Amino acid sequence: MNRSCMQKEVMDLKSENMKTINDILYQHAPEQRHSLAILQEVQKEFGYISPNNLLAISTYLKVPVSEIFSIATFYKALSLEKKGRFIIKVCDGTACHIRGSVNVLEEIKRALQIKENETTPDGLFSIEVVNCVGSCAMAPVLICNDEYYGNVKTGQAEKMIQSVRKEADANA
Questions:
Q1: Residue 51 above 70 pLDDT?
Q2: CA angle at residue 23 from 19 to 28, to 5 degrees?
Q3: Which of the chain's termini has less CB crowding within 10 Å, N or C?
């Protein structure tokens, strides 16, 4: 697909999504040096970076989409796949690993019936394993969105999931 066709395709999109992506883009000068900042804002707004958003960023910055894709896949904090509303991060740094994070991870996988880097069919939960969250004194540590759970023992992870699910149902 040539560049002019890609530009027209991006501009023809009439979704609310494009309104917001344009709002993000126009906050930055159309210079390649803003690639990462734009990707981070898109990630924050939508929870992931869609193919349409990659294309819109590429078109706006006038750089190949492969370059934007390369940046988006280099940084672990950026995702090209839609994630759950609640992202459960299981720390597997040295302290957490020694204190049983593997068992906590297995409990979460059983409770949600998914594997790490997957999302539940209802789109509510995703599981990620991270190297270190810097809370070694509280090992093992889970993070659900921005809330930290420390000294997690077997059985506590499943209770946390049930609590989050109830809260999500109440706010639905």
A1: yes
A2: 145
A3: C
